[in-house]
Predict the structure.
Amino acid sequence: MTTQRAFGFLLIISALTFGVGRAAEVPNSYLDVVDHASFEEVKQRMEGNKGKVEAAHRKLLEERYDLADRASSVKMSGGKPVQAGVRVKLPKGVTWDSLAAMSAADIRNRDVYPGGFLPLPHQNHPEGGMVFPQSHIDRVKTQEDRDLTRFDLDFVLPEHLIAESPAPIYLTTRPDLGDVSKGKLVTLTNYYETFSGLLNPKQLEGLRLLLTPFPQQQFNATADRRSAKPSQGVACFDCHTNGHTNGADHLVGDIRPQEFRHRIETPSLRGVNIQRLFGSQRALKSVEDFTEFEQRAAYFDGDPVIATKKGVNVLDRGSQVHFMSEFQEILDFPPAPKLDLFGHLDPAKSAPEELRGEKVFFGKGKCSTCHAPPYYTDNLMHDLQTGRFFKPRTIDGHTAVTDGAIKTFPLRGVKDSPPYMHDGRLLTLEDTVEFFNLVLGVKLSGAEKKDLLAFMYAL
């Protein structure tokens, strides 16, 4: 029997045994590659459910957070105001001080762990996939005539609570130039005129590839896409806009079953040259590894079968991956004029509250245990054991148990990167101060919290 005939025989036996098009009767790790309904049927059904799905997520956000637009006088490096105040809502009868005085067991037993400290589900956790802020969708439509709109889901978090976009671009090779993007969203339509003469040919080609859309789980040409029209796909810089972040979110590809997958809010690519752990599971040890496997894994939920169906882009390691990583490696943190060459505050340039905050950071607050200067990361992973504060529960399709080990993200330029934590559950830096004050048990005073915040703004 020839190989072709043998393969055909196996397909016939499989169809007779399991039934053509039947859903799996037991849970497994694989998505179904068979189209069980037409594209129009799926689109009509999911568009019909869109309002209900978005309303449920909006309700969750409003229950957990104060979502008002309350800008502070502090600006991100591109000029967008930083949002002020603690936004996580407390349970009735509890204050931040009284909560910090409780043991983890008491908080768990009384069920008073703030909802905003719990893991944040995806806007539609059972479905998942990349979701982009409307401002980014609009700019890409205008510049490239490419549509990143999903017919089943919109970005729900208010845009005043996410990073500025388009963000400034700073280069380690040309720190004298400041923001080389000049306030523009860098796309295929303008990258050459913007960077030719600033980058070497390899870096320029790497940037072109980072801006080139390739098929992705929700944006592709197959019938089970989530775009109204067959799509060219998604570019790396659709999430990592201008080498930073625009707040787009996704689900990590390394956890199964679906309800246990973590939401991932796009981390910044600034300063990847000093980082040593990449990918949602931090199993990748170089930006080259991350670049090569991101489109094979994260783009398709870690499923190589689906990736083949939808049009995976297999990058060449020796040229394309090298070029892309070479550009990523020169993306710099924003300027921090108050820091000296060791990453500490220069007393001559710093305000008293910033200097007091630095002492809290390196002392009572225990922040520097993980966030060490000059870039304020130890390039390790740490388990904060958040599961000790709450009983496992399912929240809008996501089963929250604990966070496990999470990468220490750099704090250089941290005011430019809201929301915070890997899933974006903390909307402001004030929220992060309250979170770590509780989780680390350091019992900071109100004045110490304010000083610590002032120091982090200076980073």
